[in-house]
Amino acid sequence: MKKKILLASLIGLSVTSCNNDKFLTVVPQTALSSATFFTKEADFQQAVNAIYVPLRPMYNEAAWALEEMHSDNTYYARNVLFGAVDNTQNIADFAILNAGGLTANTIVLNMYRLNYQIIARANQVLSVIDKVEFPAASKNNLKGQAHFLRGFAYFKLAQLFGKAPLHLAPVADREGAAKPLAQTAELQGQVEKDIQEAIKLLPLKKDQEAGRATSGAARMLLANLYMVQKKWGQAETLLREIVTSGEYSLMADYNDAFSTTTGNKNNRESVFEVQYIEGAAGLNGNQIYRFIPTPITADELRPITGTSNAQAISGENNNVPTPDIIAAYEPGDKRKDISIGSVTLSQSLRANKTYPYIKKYARTHAQHNNTGQNWPVYRYAEVLLFLAEALNEQGKTGEAAPFLNQVRTRAGLGATTAASQADMREAIFKERRVELAFENKRWYDLVRTGRVNEIIAAHGARIKANPQNYYFPSGAVPPPNAFTNLEIYYPLPAVEAALTPHF
């Protein structure tokens, strides 16, 4: 009965307040809401911090599966004793179940929801920030970060799904959440608007708190959008602005481009990276524990992680470098041994018990299953490779070569021999693969260059022809539906379809 009285009272207040909003609107002062929380600068700083939070589970748990393992760079190490692992296997095997444009895959669902968490939090900040007075420089910075992060999330949704609801204001109820699907062009248009605004509002890296979005990061994101859209000249302009800013450069050693678990974070090569902190505060990651082949004993794991309390891991792990990516490195490429290590698993059911693993994320740390290295989203090396590509696609092949060669020189390789536009295009494509290996770039490169069917069909044929080369024990094979779904977009999450008539 008390609930009914309270509901009737709330409805009565909402109805009578229509006559005189300023006088009759009553906001509960004991409950945290947008009306009571957003009153000062510190509130907006806290709210903007919250917009970044979904990036941690996104890059720890989902992005590597949907963007890297869904390619020819990595695969899963089959453990037939572990049972069903359909979510990751279906992604790696290009066998995502699609029922009328919907999927029950929980990794797809989590990625979708994490992006909308970012969007919802950014919308809340942007909807009220101009109503509160505080210093303009701080306000512009916070608004710029909110625009950047909302644009980043919509860019992800456009890349992964091709269509998604477009929300630019806080959603007050379930009905308001059920919006029609915006198509790729509309999503990309909003990304462009958000990031153009972010570029105007955000400070340079040197003037920004480490780890936050900067004008350089915003330029890189917008350039990435233009590369997808094949707007080569517009991408070139933005990328040249990053290069000439003097704020970024390649680290002398490729290994130093990546943070340790406690240091070297947001270094001069970093354009934008997801922040993790090792320890008990809940800000840590554990990527290497998701990637290391298993079953692995504590003694086999200890030299890789350096922990004092190493523990055995069973199950079936993922994102294991394929023979394809291992063969992609040229002789003498310093990046190979920095990016890929090997481990022998005494308990493996394979005849060949030696497996590769992603070494660039195997940074020593204190406690088992608790790491603090940041995840690189954009590095200056990719700025150089994008710029080389944008120039080459405009027929400026000679101008492209020096930017490609900066990356190759750091890797200990000679200058490219590519002279024609076609040869340079292939050289850049191959360079991106090894320079950005395991940084969640490969799937997007296959899509935007139109090479999914060409490369993944051949990759799948190799796995089916020789499963043992791709980490299957003797007698085990990929499922019958492996490599039957080469669509460039993921189906939308089926769980969300229950909330909207538009899916």
UniProtKB/TrEMBL annotation:
Keywords: Cell outer membrane, Membrane, Signal
UniProt organism field: Nibrella viscosa
SusD-like N-terminal domain: residues covered: 23-226
Keyword Membrane listed: yes
Domain RagB/SusD per the UniProt entry, residue ranges: 330-496
This protein's name: RagB/SusD family nutrient uptake outer membrane protein
InterPro entries: SusD-like_N, SusD_RagB_dom, TPR-like_helical_dom_sf
Location of this chain's protein in the cell: Cell outer membrane
Pfam short name (any one): SusD-like_3
